[in-house]
Write a structure and sequence with these properties.
The chain is α+β, with helices and mostly antiparallel strands and 119 residues long. It has a single domain, classed as Histidine kinase-like ATPase, C-terminal domain (Heat Shock Protein 90). It is built from three helices and six strands. The strands form two sheets. The protein has a four-stranded antiparallel beta sheet with strand order 3-4-5-6, with helices on both faces. Strands 1-2 form a two-stranded antiparallel ribbon.
Length: 119
């Protein structure tokens, strides 16, 4: 189920999976679950978004990524944090994954600035 919260969409894993499959641009990064991963992921995302001509989303994406990667580093139970960016050059999907002992396939998702959904 998709919900709009503060101008952003929050989606279920199934919704995100279907949306991501339809988007041609993909980038993936895995880093150690260390506090130094947070600024590295922000910089990485800014470079990727610039290459996709989505620099206008970089500030918002950095804020979302910072929060989610920090949560993964602090509360995840594994040695790595995985970051995925997926886009059709209009919408951006940010996915952060970490090993979690108490939940299967723990991921946090945000979809940003989809024109069709901004109403």
């Amino acid at each position: 189920m998709t919900k709009k919260v503060s101008g952003m969409l929050t989606c279920s894993a199934a919704d995100i999976d279907a949306l991501a499959r339809a988007m041609p641009e993909r980038a993936h990064l895995e880093l150690g679950a260390l506090t130094s991963a947070v600024p590295m992921t922000r910089t990485w995302a800014r470079v990727i978004l610039s290459g996709w001509n989505l620099a206008r989303l970089a500030d918002d994406a950095e804020q979302v990524i910072s929060e989610l990667v920090t949560n993964s580093v602090l509360h995840g139970s594994g040695p790595i944090v995985s970051i995925w960016l997926v886009s059709d050059r209009e919408c951006l999907v940010i996915m952060i994954g970490d090993p979690c002992r108490t939940c299967r396939n723990a991921q946090r998702h945000r979809t940003m600035n989809c024109p069709a959904e901004d109403s």
